[in-house]
């Protein structure tokens, strides 16, 4: 497995045992705050590796292990205050998307002031941030290489994203993903897959995002079954992590659209819905509409599942079935009702989709999203 570095806005080291890549960056800091979740940073071994490096360099640090999935603005503001009181020169995020996104917003709030919701609503613009170093623990979000951060506003249940900052430098080590539970192996890979599908079909898509997306999907289709069958297969984890990383670059360029929009509404209403699970539930139905709008590139992405796809809009239903079969084959067969959703929630879903942030985001979808499409997608997946 090749180890390499990538010079995007984030300096990335990809491969096994590359934590020392951060050493020259950290040497310039005397105090750092580590932002992570309550368990994964320790179980993966990443926190121990970071603490050893900080000890070697004589750097003072604190560990703030309060991050939870689908973090709220109130949580992020509380972490930002704790970080501010400690007065670090930099942040280290250890975790998946929730931890890295939290750290992005905290790094911005501490440097620029304001609150989490200010940046999600666009009331403040991120003009600077504390240096941020990310150690990624999942093969899903791509947050270690993009500028986006996602959080839920407590009062309105709006789960929104904003471009706030890139990590200064990041580490993608497949060894840290070996301890992912089976469901997180599945959910995070589904997230990366829909990053690829949406970045290749958004109104901002281009040949570069298409190329990245086709390759990312191909790796996920090949290696997700292997990682599920043999969780300690570091080669499979390497390629899933690679797929997630290049899909993260793709959404940094072309963003996501309707599948992520609807999922954000759903997991904003019920934070217990894992992000990747929500995408896997509503994604196949919405893929049918995406395929009709962008048949050529969708066919190219999905050919590993159905080589007979030729890029005709009439194949949309068959394309959807091929994706549904893949998800069933890897053990994903969930419904919205598993997370407590009922028909009564549809009204709130439709209402949230009419708010300004979601309407603005909807413009990236390559077809007109009607009320009927949302209703059918929601009701079919209860």
Q: What pattern of helices and strands is seen along the backbone?
A: EEHEHHEHEHHEEEEHHHHHHHHHH
Helix content: 40-55%
N- and C-termini, Cα separation? 42 Å
Shape: globular
Number of domains: 2
User: What's the CATH topology label of the largest domain?
Assistant: Dehydroquinate synthase-like, alpha domain
| Structural class by helix and strand composition | alpha/beta
Keywords:
7-stranded mixed beta sheet; about 375 residues; Rossmann fold; Dehydroquinate synthase-like, alpha domain; alpha/beta
Provide structural commentary:
Strands 1-2-9-6-5-3-4 form a seven-stranded mixed beta sheet, with helices on both faces. The longest helix has 23 residues, at 207-229. The chain has 382 residues and is of the alpha/beta class. It folds into two domains: 4-176, Rossmann fold (3-Layer(aba) Sandwich); 180-380, Dehydroquinate synthase-like, alpha domain (Up-down Bundle). Strand 7 (148-153) and strand 8 form a beta hairpin. The radius of gyration is 20 Å and the shape is globular. Helices cover 51% and strands 13% of the residues. It has 16 helices and nine strands. The mean pLDDT is 97. The protein has helices at residues 23-26, 40-43, 46-57, 73-86, 97-112, 116-120, 182-199, 207-229, 234-254, 258-269, 275-293, 295-302, 316-329, 346-353, 356-362, 371-380; strands at residues 4-7, 11-14, 31-37, 60-67, 90-95, 132-136, 148-153, 158-163, 169-172.
């Amino acid at each position: 497995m090749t180890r390499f570095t990538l010079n995007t806005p984030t300096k990335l080291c990809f491969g096994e045992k590359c934590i020392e890549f951060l050493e020259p960056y950290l040497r310039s800091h005397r105090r750092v705050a580590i932002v992570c979740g309550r368990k994964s940073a320790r179980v993966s071994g990443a926190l121990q590796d970071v603490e050893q490096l900080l000890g070697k360099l004589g750097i003072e640090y604190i560990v703030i292990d309060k991050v939870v999935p689908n973090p709220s603005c109130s949580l992020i503001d509380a972490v930002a205050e704790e970080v501010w009181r400690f007065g670090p020169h930099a942040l280290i995020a250890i975790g998946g998307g929730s931890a890295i996104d939290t750290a992005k917003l905290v790094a911005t709030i501490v440097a620029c002031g304001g609150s989490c919701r200010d940046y999600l609503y666009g009331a403040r613009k991120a003009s600077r941030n504390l240096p941020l170093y990310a150690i990624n623990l999942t093969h899903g979000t791509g947050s270690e290489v993009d500028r986006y951060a996602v959080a839920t506003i407590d009062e309105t249940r709006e789960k929104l994203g904003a471009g706030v900052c890139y990590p200064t430098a990041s580490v993608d080590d497949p060894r840290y993903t070996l301890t992912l539970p089976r469901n997180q192996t599945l959910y995070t890979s589904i997230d990366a897959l829909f990053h690829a599908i949406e970045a290749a079909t958004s109104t901002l898509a281009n040949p570069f995002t298409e190329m990245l997306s086709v390759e990312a999907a191909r790796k996920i289709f090949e290696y997700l079954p292997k990682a599920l069958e043999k969780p300690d297969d570091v080669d499979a984890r390497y390629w899933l992590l690679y797929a997630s990383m290049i899909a993260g670059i793709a959404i940094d360029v072309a963003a996501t659209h309707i599948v992520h929009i609807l999922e954000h509404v759903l997991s904003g209403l019920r934070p217990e819905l894992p992000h990747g699970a929500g995408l896997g539930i509503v994604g196949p139905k919405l893929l049918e509409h995406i395929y009709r709008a962008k048949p050529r590139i969708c066919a190219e992405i999905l050919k590993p599942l159905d080589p007979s796809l030729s890029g005709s809009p009439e194949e949309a239903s068959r394309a959807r079935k091929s994706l549904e079969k893949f998800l069933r084959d890897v053990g994903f067969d969930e419904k919205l009702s598993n997370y407590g959703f009922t028909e009564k929630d549809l009204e709130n879903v439709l209402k949230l989709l009419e708010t300004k942030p979601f309407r603005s985001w909807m413009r990236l979808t390559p077809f007109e999203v009607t009320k009927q499409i949302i209703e059918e997608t929601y009701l079919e997946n209860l």
